[in-house]
Amino acid sequence: MKRILILNGPNLNLLGEREPDKYGNETLESINAWLTEEAKRIDTELTFFQSNVEGELVTAVQDGRTYDGIVINAGAYTHYSIAIRDAISAIDTPVVEVHLSNTDAREDFRHVSMLAGVCKGTIAGFGKDSYLLAILALL
Ligand code: DQA
After folding, report:
1. Which of 30, 94, 110, 113 has the most other CB atoms within 10 Å of its CB?
2. What is the pTM of this model?
3. Could you tell me which residues are beta bridge partners of residue 70?
């Protein structure tokens, strides 16, 4: 059985009520429950962590090195966190960057990702399916 860590960054705890036109109506809890069931079908165990704090995400990436892979939606930190980038660079575990929205179709500042260059790949724009596609990419 594969073990994958799913990390979510700032404001993603407000999914369901936060800008539903961009991020949908589902809560993070509900997305995670759905992912857990989908992952079981592909013999994969998921562990979830969300934080609004950059340093906690850095530590979570470091601790994630014992997993088979990490899926990260770093929220706004994607666009400027060198600390999270360095944490991803520091570990050998493959990391996939995900976004619910298509960041390239939004404001210019969202077109830049500090993380993309050190991740295995990026999946953006498919809502909650972005997470599932990222999990499949890690198998
Ligand atoms: C996001 C896109 C980011 O630009 C934004 O800051 C978020 C959510 C997404 O999942 O689409 O918080 O990562």
Report:
1. 113
2. 0.98
3. 5, 95
- Hey, which of 100, 108, 119, 130 would you mutate to test ligand 1's pocket, going by the most ligand atoms within 8 Å of its Cβ? 100
Can you list the positions of beta strands (E) in the chain? 2-8, 44-50, 69-73, 95-99, 121-124
Mean pLDDT in residue range 57-76:
98
Length of the chain: 139
Give 15-61 pLDDT, tens digit per residue. Answer: 999 999 999 999 999 999 999 999 999 999 999 999 999 999 999 99
Three-state secondary structure readout of 7-52: EECCCHHHCCCCCHHHHCCCCHHHHHHHHHHHHHCCCEEEEEEECC
Residues lining ligand 1, judged by CB closer than 6 Å?
11, 73, 75-76, 78, 99-101, 103, 110
Domain boundaries, the chain: 2-138
Active site residue 77: no
Residue with structure tokens 């589902």?
A: 26
